[in-house]
Recover the amino acids of this structure.
């Protein structure tokens, strides 16, 4: 099965017409994963005995369609590691809400994708299981932290994969791998069963090659959940109704800060070409300012690391996961299990967060970061009073080389400068392929006001139909 030439609609048509059975589709998917994994390393766990649900009704387009799930999302009786040594053998006894919803829609969970450990990273090089490789160039990173999900979709292993986004972890790898990825509004999708990193920032979303496929999967994932008090109970629209529309009269904001210093000139030029396409087709382009953009990286790393230091206290070598064999007493169990079980980036963020929350630093750092976050939210609210969407580059550059930035955490953090603000503000955001720069994909980021994913799908689908990037195939897998 070559997913690069398929959509959910085309697969459903083949299933309906009995050109292929759901069992064959599952086996073909497993075979494709087996073929590509030696090159991509996109999966941590492949469910070799995966089987489609019984008595499938193909009037449901998602029935029988295989999907991959990021490995920080809990899956019943399927190993879930968060790409960490400390959870190398963790076998959950329940499904996350999003997994239960996929199963209720009769999709087939086919495997768990590679990622940065505990979703902490911008390149997926922090994985205990080794870095996934970019299908466009196997010497380049996939982005992070949902790098495995992006590579699996871009390489043609699966038609769709779930990712999570705390500061750009769906959009950045989507841009690097030339696929579509959407982070819905905070509170649109349940986080119950997601291994928490930054609880006020984390959001589960969808990664697919085609915009329409993400709309179909997000329809299923969205909505209230009794297990998660932060999920909105508002009615979920049919996101597919936003597809196949024009952009005439759409008010598009373009922040000057997203085209400033540090952004590749070639990336700027390509994104401006896509904005010109919107304008030529009737969109109203407005130049705006997000004045607090320069604060988003320090603000994010104080808030996210503080929340991470609290969330990761539960991994103590006592209840589940890795326990040091050299522990002589209870203190040894805690200290040695965590020291041996966590990677360097996770330790770095735990220490940063613990410091920011400490008695002598809370007012100077965490409290101030919370105030700056409010200012960032107000920036977005002001722009959305007069605009429907905000657009700009997703990343400052195309994908960079493996091991090229691992020794400089600050340089790595800078890759998220264009994506972090959407998480701090809780607004929906997506990346759609804009074209190629030096042979590597570049993404156009689209943001909208809270619970207005329809505007994002409308613009992304229009861009996709305009540039037809989906017709391009990744070059790194060519023999």
């Amino acid at each position: 099965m070559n997913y690069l030439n398929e959509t959910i609609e085309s697969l459903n048509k083949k299933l309906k017409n009995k050109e292929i059975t759901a069992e064959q589709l599952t086996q073909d998917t497993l075979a494709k994963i087996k073929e590509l994994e030696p090159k991509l390393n996109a999966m941590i766990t492949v469910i070799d005995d995966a089987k489609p649900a019984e008595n499938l009704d193909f009037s449901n387009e998602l029935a029988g369609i295989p999907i991959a799930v990021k490995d920080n999302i809990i899956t019943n009786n399927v190993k879930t590691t968060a790409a960490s040594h400390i959870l190398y053998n963790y076998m959950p006894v329940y499904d996350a809400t999003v997994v239960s919803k996929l199963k209720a829609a009769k999709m087939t969970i086919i495997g768990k994708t590679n990622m940065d450990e505990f979703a902490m990273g911008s390149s997926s090089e922090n994985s205990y299981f080794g870095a996934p490789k970019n299908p466009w160039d196997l010497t380049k990173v996939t982005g992070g932290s949902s790098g495995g999900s992006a590579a699996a979709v871009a390489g043609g292993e699966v038609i769709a994969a779930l990712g999570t986004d705390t500061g750009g972890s769906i959009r950045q790898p989507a841009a690097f791998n030339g696929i579509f990825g959407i982070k819905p509004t905070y509170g649109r999708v349940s986080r119950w069963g997601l291994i928490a990193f930054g609880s006020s920032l984390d959001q589960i979303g969808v990664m697919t090659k085609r915009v329409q496929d993400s709309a179909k999967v997000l329809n299923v994932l969205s909505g209230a959940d009794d297990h998660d008090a932060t999920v909105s109970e508002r009615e979920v629209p049919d996101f597919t109704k936003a597809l196949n529309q024009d952009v005439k009269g759409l008010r598009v904001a373009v922040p000057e800060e997203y085209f400033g210093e540090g952004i590749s000139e070639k990336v700027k030029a390509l994104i401006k070409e896509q904005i010109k396409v919107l304008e030529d087709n009737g969109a109203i382009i407005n130049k705006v300012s997000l004045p607090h953009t320069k604060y988003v990286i320090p603000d994010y790393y104080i808030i996210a690391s503080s929340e991470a230091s609290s969330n990761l206290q539960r991994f103590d070598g006592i209840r589940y996961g890795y326990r040091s064999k050299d522990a002589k007493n209870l203190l040894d169990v805690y200290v040695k299990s965590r020291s041996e079980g966590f990677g360097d980036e996770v330790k770095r963020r735990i220490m940063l967060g613990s410091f920011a929350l400490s008695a002598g630093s809370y007012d100077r750092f965490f409290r101030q970061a919370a105030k700056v976050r409010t200012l960032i939210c107000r920036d977005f609210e002001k722009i959305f009073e007069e605009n429907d969407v905000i657009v700009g580059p997703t990343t400052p550059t195309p994908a960079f080389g493996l091991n090229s930035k691992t020794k400089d955490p600050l340089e790595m953090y800078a890759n998220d400068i264009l994506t972090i603000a959407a998480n701090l503000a809780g607004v929906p955001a997506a990346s759609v392929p804009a074209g190629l720069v030096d042979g590597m994909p570049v993404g156009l980021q689209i943001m909208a006001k809270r619970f207005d994913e329809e505007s994002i799908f409308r613009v992304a689908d229009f861009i996709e139909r305009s540039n037809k990037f989906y017709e391009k195939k990744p070059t790194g897998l060519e023999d």
Notes: The first strand starts at residue 43 and ends at 46. The CA atoms of residues 84 and 128 lie 5 Å apart.
